[in-house]
Amino acid sequence: MATNIRLEGEAGGLALPLRRDAVGWQDRPILLRLISIALFAAIWEIAGLIPVSFAFPTFSDTLVAFFGLLADGSLPSAYLSTLQPLVVGVVLSAFLGVGIGTICGLSRTGEWLIVPVFIVLQSAPVAAFIPLVTFVYGIGMTAKVLAVMILALPVIVLNTYKAVRNVNGSLLSMCRSFLGTRWQSISKIILPDASPVIFAGLRLGVAAGFVGVVLAELLITPTGIGDVITFHRSRADYAEMYATIASIIALSTLTLVFLQWVEVRVFRPEKRGR
Amino acid sequence: MGATALRNKPAPVSAPNDAIVEVRGICKTYGNVEALRGVDLDFPRGKLTSLLGPSGCGKTTLLKIIAGLIEADAGTVTIDGKPVKGPGPERAFVFQDFALMPWATVLRNVAFGLELRRRARAEREEIARRYIAQVGLAGFEDKYPHELSGGMRQRVGLARALSVDAEVLLLDEPFSAVDEQNRRKFQEDLIRLRTQENKTFIFVTHSIEEAVYISDRIVLLSPRPGRVSRIIEPEIDRSGDPDRIHRDKHYLDTVEEIWQGLKQYVE
After folding, report:
1. Homologous superfamily in CATH for domain A83-271
2. Domains and CATH numbers, chain B
3. In what order do the strands lie in the sheet with B33-44?
4. Taking the model in full, what pTM does it have?
5. Is A171–B101 a contact, with Cβ atoms under 8 angstroms apart?
6. Which value does ipTM take for this structure?
7. Which residues on chain B are in Cβ contact (under 8 Å) with A184?
């Protein structure tokens, strides 16, 4: 998730509109990231060769197992079933969470009524609720979507709420003095100004959603990715198990990178290429 | 002293028929701090009036009451006879901290007042480009605020206020966050701009030199509680070289005289 956001430097008194920094190795984030991944793979390979544990495969074995799982179709079909509750839960959490958080940030009543619930939810060990969810909603899709939402929603709501509450007051009175309506001040000032913190919450929420769906598949009914992990663990196919786990971590990371790309593209164009 | 018309009474002064902004009996208290007590003032049309005083004299509060951003506890403000109930299209505000949207380009920031009024994009951008050029920022339309210096950012704030074509411009210490060299250049530009735009300016400042340099009329406010202590009309010829003003005898005399008057309020 390395971002290359530098501190906003004043261009030193007089007008010096564009600064072209010297391009050094620090300024090539992609190269740096690739090196970091390669280093991690190398350490994994060595640790697997020692071996750390008989249940710890090498990086290369895991990679082979990954392509094996892809080829025999078990991984693609597992993702097909895992992604349904995940996508539904994350999308619902994102819209509901930003909506509820914005309302809480704008209205005192909303703040008093709703925020405490989410503060409790955020600090609670939510995984403990999952058996309860199963008890009420059974083992179907609804239960899994709920498991995703229980984990993803609180952090999205609370971040949005804090961001909206701490919006730049000077920009708000600017909007008011130029005759902006309440709705205009929300859509043109509050949401863009709050978007970095809202997106930080969304990233945490999406990551929590991945935790939720895997927990649901391990605890409620073994389906999708949870099933593949459980199955290969029971057969002591550790390379396959690790490959599955690594693949969902990779997917989660890619989703977060995509989210950041959307943020910079849509909401904060001034951070592009910085 | 001869060229400086002095009035020692805080009462509403002269030209009652051509005051665009009339302030009557404004009082404002924050908690147990009395910011303004019974302020009566007229702001003549087409003039630049400065509100000058030490910090705590309520000058920014008065400006924001005129802007409709703060409600007064008592008293009325009228613009062309119509009472102020909030912000209005005939007034535009320039903020001390610029209040630019960091995520928007110079062009969008300048056009923002018109965007809020739902004017078509092509139309508002054309107007914005004109004012960007007028404040000397042509070529910077697609830059973001963080790419500009403080002085340039405030030029964006000024262009935004000009582009909504308000009759009254309210400037809240616009140069206080701008470095000295840029401030002086900006003051010269403001004098030039005033000859092009036939607008009424109300200007809050704590700098005596700045007030005398640019104002037709200076309202001195005394602190705690804020009230009008004096009104001064420096008669300085601003038609020629702006640098000459700084050496003008009336300019220097007026600055000195105001300082003598304000000294008592500075601890």
Report:
1. MetI-like (1.10.3720.10)
2. 1-90+168-267 (3.40.50.300), 93-165 (no CATH)
3. B33-44, B19-30, B74-79, B82-83
4. 0.79
5. yes
6. 0.85
7. 116
